Amino acid sequence: MKELKLFAYLAETLGDRITLQLPPTFDKEQILQLAAAAYPLMKAEIMTCNVAVDQEFATITDTFVREEVGEIALIPPVSGG
Length: 81
Known about the structure:
Layout lengths: L1 E5 L1 H7 L2 E4 L4 E3 H11 L4 H4 L3 E4 L2 E2 L5 E3 L6 E4 L6
Parallel strand pairs: 1-7
Antiparallel strand pairs: 1-2, 3-6, 4-5, 4-7
C-alpha cells in the first residue's frame, strides 16, 4: 500500500490523501489507472493529472520501485486568470 497526496479539486473531493495498492514496480500511467479504478467517479479528472514522485514530475518513460519511493502526488492541471 502506498499513500498518494492529492491537490486542488481532487483533495476537496476525496480528501488530501488516498491509499493505493501499487505493484513492486510501476510507472506514471499505472498510478493514474489504479487511482481512476479506485475512484471511478473521478476517472476523467484523475487521468488529466500530473504525477510527482519524490517531488519530481514523472514522465511516461520513468519506472519506479515501490520500496524506493517516498512520496507520490497527483496534481491536477491548473489555470490562472
